[in-house]
């Protein structure tokens, strides 16, 4: 049977062609197989294939050998589905271990995940092919039918895009998701335009670079129909896929062959002099000081009280969502367990966090005890202190959780007396601040007015006409102006030089008051004491005096 998608023909191929197209068994890193079994469809019997250039610390297999193993003995009667990872991993299957990007995919499921008849499945396949042809996306390289009515579309790379560092991996993941979002959004928009409602795009599975997909050649347990593989499109370089989608950025360069852990791909051997300089720069540890060992489950960092309160709110909303909605976590069980346990480990004791995740897993996630222990092996020894932005991106974009990330705090309830006292104190502070602002403004106007009109402080003080002009200039009411004008003149003596005649005139209505920061306020105060001439001794004794109007 063939699939017709516009001018493209997709021909049904044997599983050996799938092995050849996807280099199954010859991958430069690990590709994982697993099977779903039991009533909960939990994933188990994880085995990897590939020929990595590094030591994977595990035995590898091939697709053919794996299928032979699970189709014999007790496994044959309990297997509910067989899966593989399109992308490649350094060791274990999680996002932190992603090592090679091989393809993009769109997972299409039937409404309510129902198993369809062969006729209904064919109708869905024809509709998917029509949407693929009309949508503003490149034609897929491969099509896989799941045997129950579901369809998987693949855009296969011409060669695996290998990571060369943790930062490079994060960049590739970001770019990979951008391409996947473009493919799924445009495809789903065309589906809605044509009005097809019997199937939908699984965005979570399509945007998960470490996810599992059904393995061609296996059987679907609901219908016992085979998972078939079709080939008809071309392979892509990542940049060619970017260009065909009309995106305006360059895909990050691929890493060459060297896959030794901890080594940069293009790193050159350091010379002896370079190594010697590096060892000289590196600080030496005091042998008397013992480096503390990491304890399993103990957080190796710090969270403030506010951060812990915020994380507690996130965990509470997450558990409420799992309890109320009972979402289908297929393909996201490992990420859900990992991030929920990591958040709990930041706010709880290690034992309490482990007990918490075991209860949540038993109720909602559905991993076996062995799988849960394997998935959380790194989180049990290392606590990942994701910040607000990173954690929000993980939970909202990757896991699609409807969580409110706004941090809310419970306000303390105050008695009526406490509220009145607090309001009274706030009013005092407000009045004091307003008064100081008004005084500073008026002092600035007085200083500027004197400089512009070559006047003296005494003239301002004694002339009603000048005060009227100054009041209009300051744009203050008369009551406010006359309440602060004397204090403003007094404060202005600290900022401008005061002439002796003005000082004598002001002294007739002022008394002495000490101020430690002003010498200009008192030019020569000898006239107050009947002194004749300037006395340096007197000035040194009375430095910092200024005149203040008597009360």
List keywords for this structure.
19 helices; alpha+beta; disordered C terminus; five-stranded mixed sheet; 551 residues
Architecture overview:
With 551 residues, the chain is α+β, with helices and mostly antiparallel strands. It is 44% helix and 15% strand. The chain has 19 helices and 15 strands. It has helices spanning 15-21, 63-70, 75-78, 118-134, 166-194, 203-206, 238-244, 272-281, 305-325, 333-347, 350-365, 369-375, 388-398, 416-453, 457-462, 464-474, 478-492, 500-507, 536-541, and strands spanning 2-5, 8-13, 31-37, 42-49, 60-61, 79-84, 88-89, 98-110, 142-145, 151-162, 199-201, 213-214, 228-231, 511-514, 545-548. The strands form three sheets. Strands 1, 2, 7, 8, 9, 10, 11 and 13 form an eight-stranded antiparallel β-sheet that branches. A five-stranded mixed β-sheet has the order 5-4-3-6-12. The protein has a two-stranded antiparallel ribbon with strand order 14-15. Strand 3 (31-37) and strand 4 (42-49) form a beta hairpin. The longest helix has 38 residues, at 416-453. The radius of gyration is 39 Å and the shape is elongated.
């Amino acid at each position: 049977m063939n699939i017709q998608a516009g001018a493209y023909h997709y021909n049904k191929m044997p599983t050996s062609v799938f092995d050849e197209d996807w280099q199954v068994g010859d991958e430069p890193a690990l590709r994982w197989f697993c099977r779903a079994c039991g009533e909960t469809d939990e994933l188990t019997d994880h085995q990897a294939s590939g020929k990595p250039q590094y030591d994977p610390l595990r035995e590898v297999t091939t697709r053919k050998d794996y299928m032979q193993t699970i189709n014999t003995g007790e496994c044959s009667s309990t297997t509910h589905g067989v899966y593989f990872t399109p992308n490649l991993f350094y060791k274990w299957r999680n996002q932190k271990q992603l090592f090679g990007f091989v393809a993009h995919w769109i997972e299409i499921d039937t409404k309510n995940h129902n198993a369809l008849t062969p006729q209904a499945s064919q109708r869905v396949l024809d509709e998917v092919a029509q949407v693929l042809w009309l949508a503003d996306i490149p034609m897929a390289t491969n099509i896989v039918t799941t045997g129950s009515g579901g369809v998987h579309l693949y855009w296969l790379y011409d060669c695996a895009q290998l990571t060369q560092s943790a930062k490079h991996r994060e960049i590739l993941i970001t770019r990979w998701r951008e391409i996947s979002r473009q493919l799924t959004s445009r495809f789903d928009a065309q589906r809605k335009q044509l009005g097809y409602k019997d199937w939908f795009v699984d965005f979570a599975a399509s945007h998960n670079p470490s996810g599992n997909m059904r393995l061609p050649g296996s059987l679907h347990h609901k219908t016992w129909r085979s998972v078939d593989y079709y080939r008809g499109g071309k392979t892509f370089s990542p940049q060619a896929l970017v260009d065909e989608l009309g995106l305006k950025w360059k895909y990050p360069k691929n890493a060459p062959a060297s896959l030794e852990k901890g080594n940069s791909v293009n790193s050159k051997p350091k010379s002896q002099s370079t190594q010697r300089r590096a060892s000289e720069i590196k600080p030496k540890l005091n042998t008397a000081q013992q480096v503390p060992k990491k304890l399993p489950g103990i957080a190796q960092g710090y969270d403030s009280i506010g951060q812990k309160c915020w994380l507690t709110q996130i965990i509470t909303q997450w558990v409420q969502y799992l309890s109320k909605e009972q979402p289908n976590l297929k393909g996201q069980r490992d990420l859900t367990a990992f991030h929920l346990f990591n958040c709990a480990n930041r706010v709880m004791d290690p034992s309490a966090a482990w007990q918490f995740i075991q209860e949540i897993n038993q109720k909602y996630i559905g991993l076996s005890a062995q799988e849960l222990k394997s998935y959380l092996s790194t989180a049990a020894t290392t606590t990942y202190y994701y910040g607000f932005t990173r954690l929000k991106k993980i939970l909202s974009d990757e896991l699609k959780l409807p969580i409110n990330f706004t941090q809310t705090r419970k306000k303390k309830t105050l008695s009526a007396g406490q509220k009145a006292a607090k309001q009274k104190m706030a009013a005092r502070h407000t009045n004091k601040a307003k008064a100081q602002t008004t005084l500073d403004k008026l002092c600035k106007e007085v200083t500027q007015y004197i400089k512009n009109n070559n006047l003296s402080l005494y003239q301002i003080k004694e002339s009603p006409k000048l005060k009227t002009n100054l009041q209009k200039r300051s744009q203050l009411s008369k009551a406010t102006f006359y309440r602060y004008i004397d204090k403003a003149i007094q404060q202005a003596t600290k900022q401008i030089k005061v002439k002796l005649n003005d000082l004598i005139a002001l002294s007739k209505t002022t008394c002495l008051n000490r101020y430690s920061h002003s010498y200009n306020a008192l030019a020569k105060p000898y006239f107050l004491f009947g002194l004749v001439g300037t006395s340096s001794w007197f000035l040194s004794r009375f430095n910092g005096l200024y005149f203040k109007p008597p009360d």
